Amino acid sequence: MLDVNGGTLPDQIYARMVEAILRGDYVDSKKLPTESELASQFGVSRPTVREALSRLRSDGIIESRRGSGSQVVRAPGTPASSMPSIRNYSDIERYYAYRTVVESGAAAAAAEFRTADDLTTIRACLEAQTLAMESGNKGIEDDIRFHRAIARASHNQFFVAAVETSVAPIRQFMELARSVRSKMTVERVRLVRMEHQQILDSIEKRSPADAAEATRLHILNAKRRIFDAAKLR
């Protein structure tokens, strides 16, 4: 419900959309509902929604294309190029140190605040990734969805935004590692599955410390696999 004392209607729609984007409501497809759907959702006119969307476009948060609708291009409050480029070995070390802190924190928060629906989503992402890898596919997007789902389960928009800005390097490194190997070995599939399962189990039993530690170990192992694959060590 909109707040009659919360500013103009477009301002309130804008604020609600920013909250939804930071919460990760549109993370998987990045596509926003249509103007008509948003108008119905918020109980306002299409011109009101259009004005809020115009402001989101002006802020560089969404892009709109005729015939394709609007989609999220970056998290609110983050610069368009918020993740520094990775240029050398030391940058890789720094990136994984950053990722370890952020994602361990997100997993700990997820263990504390997750819902039954969050667990269902995380579990589905894990199953999809395992199936993809067992079928000989890279499963990169399913892996990324797994980590995004954990961030969303934290119900903390700052963790969601931080993990979202980390997606490009995650994808880059996973592509690097898996381009070296034409197919994931059975042992590698088993290890990745086990590491992810330990994170999920800790979140399910509401153990923030265990969830943070399982995530820390998984990310450290992921870094090691990157170095092994690229023969950087």
From TrEMBL:
Q: Does the keyword Transcription apply?
A: yes
Kindly list the GO molecular function terms attached to this UniProt entry.
Answer: DNA binding
Any one Pfam family here would be: GntR
Domain of life of the native organism: Bacteria
Please tell me whether the keyword Membrane is annotated for this protein: no
What the entry lists under InterPro entries is as follows: GntR_C, TF_FadR/GntR_C, Tscrpt_reg_HTH_GntR, WH-like_DNA-bd_sf, WH_DNA-bd_sf
**Family matches, as SMART domains:** FCD (SM00895), HTH_GNTR (SM00345)
- What are the residue boundaries of the HTH gntR-type domain, all occurrences included? 7-75
What keywords appear on the UniProt entry?
Answer: DNA-binding, Transcription, Transcription regulation
Q: By what name is this protein known? A: DNA-binding FadR family transcriptional regulator
